[in-house]
Amino acid sequence: MPGSTVGEPNTSSALALLPLPDFNALTQQQAEGHACVWDGIPLTTENAVDLGARTVDGVQRFPRACPRCVGERARAALFEHCFECDPCSQTVPGHACDTGTALMRLSIRQGR
Ligand SMILES: [Zn+2]
Ligand SMILES: [Zn+2]
Q1: pLDDT tens, residue by residue, 1-50
Q2: What is the pTM of this model?
Q3: Closest-lying ligand to the alpha carbon of 69?
Q4: For 47-75, how does the pLDDT look when each residue is reduced to its tens digit (9 = 90+)?
């Protein structure tokens, strides 16, 4: 899949781990996936990262974000994960468990 950076099972499950902002505080553009949920920049089909379907207050949402924010959030999530996860805290993060590996990949792929 040329140009595709998401879509592997591992990566999309890691995307589901990233905490999202409160949907009630988002603009309509953000809530509908036309703008990054974190910094609000307009998204195109080329730069948008699909964060997966989320159900918020009984409404299904399809939030999206820009690659830069996804990279940042993935690094933050990985950092936090390493505190909570025994294997990851004792060895090189990103190799010890599936979650750590997925978050590591996500932060490397998107963080450019
Ligand atoms: Zn962003
Ligand atoms: Zn872990």
Answers
A1: 344 444 445 667 788 889 899 888 999 999 989 999 999 999 998 889 99
A2: 0.79
A3: 1
A4: 899 998 888 888 888 999 999 999 999 99
Report how far ligand 1's centroid is from the alpha carbon of 36 (Å).
5
The per-residue DSSP string of the chain comes to: -TT-----HHHHHHHTTSPPPPGGGS-HHHHTTSB-TTT--B--TTT-EE---EEETTEEE--EE-HHHHHHHHHHHHHHHHHH-HHHHHS-TTSSSHHHHHHHHHHHHH--
- Amino acid identity of residue 102, one-letter, is A
| Ligand at shortest distance from the CA of 49 | 1
